[in-house]
Fold:
Amino acid sequence: TKERIALGVTMNNGGTLPPRGTAGVSSASYGTPSQRAALNAIAANESGGFGYDAVNQGGSADGKQALGFSGRYSEMPTARHKMPLTNMTLGQILQEGDPRFDTLSTQEFQDAGGIHAVGRYQFIHETLKALIERHSIPLNAKFTPQLQDYLAISLNNSSGSGQWVGPNEQQRAIIELGRSEPLGPPPLTY
Structure:
């Protein structure tokens, strides 16, 4: 809508986000106002109300349909770590999507607690691993909301709106506006 584009322009010019009224969707916690607007536009289609604890065990229909479990990791019946993703380290997260699972059938992968995409921005294993390596982030750093935001801004800055699942034209405009500002230092918690 014209209102969303205007919001993106306002964000790009240093404005602040209005409060979000959607239950279960937290506002982004890292970045400039235009980056946070972009993150909210990305998350609307990637994780919805599951936020920073979102996972799915696979996808089809170009990522628009989840296979296996889709929801909060802390509620996943086959989760190996009975805690929210935000309390887990990057090393633990990478183990859950380990490529060694590629030798398993889809059902075996799901039964073993494997995960395909994680967090508010639904990072797949290889993408998350590449971002961690790009920024030399230690594997004992926690997958906090701030770190998820940081990694999503990095990915958006390098790849743009075309690599996210489901944004409409207005969301794409907001996501693209978020690419115009540099990325700060990684916010690490151990």
In short: Residues 145-159 form the longest helix (15 residues). Confidence is low (pLDDT under 50) at residues 1-7, 9-26. Residues 157 and 179 are 5 Å apart (CA to CA).
